[in-house]
């Protein structure tokens, strides 16, 4: 899987990015629309559900 940038509100800034790596899939999310990542989610086992979340 290539990295995927998602602009869900159409303002030209990515609101989410999904990145595949050796440790599973990581998602970065801009929760407040300021253009900065606020939360990192990890799916380590590949089941599609976050196994961990941390603020950035």
UniProtKB/TrEMBL annotation:
Basic and acidic residues bias (residue ranges): 36-45
Q: Which organism is it from?
A: Mycobacterium kansasii
Per the record, which residues fall in region Disordered? 36-56
InterPro entries xref list: TSP_type-3_rpt (IPR028974)
GO MF annotation list:
calcium ion binding
Q: What is this protein called?
A: Pullulanase
